[in-house]
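Thread: Newbie trying to understand structure tokens

Hi all, I'm a second-year student working on a class project, and my supervisor (Dr. K.) asked me to get a predicted structure for one chain before our next meeting. I've only ever worked with sequences, so writing a 3D structure as a token string is new to me. If someone could post the tokens and maybe explain what I'm looking at, I'd be very grateful. Here's the chain:
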Amino acid sequence: MNLIVNIKAFSRLGGFLTQFLEEFSSEESASEYEFLNEMFKERLENAIQQSINYNGWFTQDNVKYALTSIANNLTYAKLSAWLLPYTESLEKNTGPGKIAVVMAGNIPLSGFHDFMCVLISGNTFIGKLSSQDKLLLPLLSDVLIEIETSFKSRIVFTEGRITSMDAVIATGSNNTSRYFDYYFGKYPNIIRRNRNSVAILTGKESELDIFNLGNDVFRYFGLGCRNVTKLFVPRNYDFDVFFRAIYDFQWIANNNKYINNYHYNKTVYLMGNENLLDNGFMILKEDKTKSSPVGVLFYEYYDSLEEIEKTLESELLSEVQCVVSNKMAKLPTVEFGAAQLPGLDDYADGIDTIQFLANLIEK
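---
Reply by user tm_fold:
Sure, no problem. This is what the structure looks like when written as tokens:
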């Protein structure tokens, strides 16, 4: 297994995506990826449009945002630095293992990181796509194969039952995870369940901080595990400040699926005589739980930051994907506005996918 070849291939994929997204006009930029552009630019544009037409939760802005997040990570320097600690283990891979990957379709290309981890580590990817996102990843795999033909024999997409594999990576809800546990439990596996992200506010945030937090809340209509679905706020927090700062996100009400969820949840809460804060496109509700429905953001008061640190320290291992804040020193936190821009080592559920694959190789 030639790790450098794999890294170069993915970095070239990143270069193609960057040029596609930014539409570079300089001859130098265009010439490097001219052949790939001729082959795939129109196909990728069509795949984006078809995905949008098929899935009402996908928009052009969100799909391109997902592609941008991927492209930003696919540089030779970033990929090399990420894989450096695993190099010795990965280079022992003398024959590709078959890794089955069952993907979610809640946000565009949510399974790309698993796809990349399997291939870049020298293994064979057997992917079962979500019906909600079945066009984009196969298209990117075609680009990757054109860049490095050795991937052709190591990329398989299937709609049927996966029966022959050496390990499994499966992402789904808490309900589907029980099925995954039953069906895939005899294989080495990573099985992911529902997770949500939270934000901790102190009341001293700037208006820009809160506006950026709005992106963590509303990006992908709140459907991703890295979307903030709950706020921890000090007592007597001024929610008028919050509502003013996120007002520019009112465009989200133009999406029929989002606004229908908002109206439905508002009706249910009002029928139950719940106390709500509402700005016409987002409901704030005091609630101890973390997984809020679409169009709703839960909040909970706290008396001390130490109290929140202690609570979240354990929940980061089981329930919470990431914590958005600019004040928490003892917990790993994400800056406001950066929740949906994970780095290569920001693993879903906190499980190191590359280490999991490296351990398989060493066995």
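A couple of things are worth pointing out once you decode it. The CA atoms of residues 3 and 87 lie 8 Å apart. Confidence is low (pLDDT under 50) at residues 24-28. Feel free to ask follow-ups in this thread.
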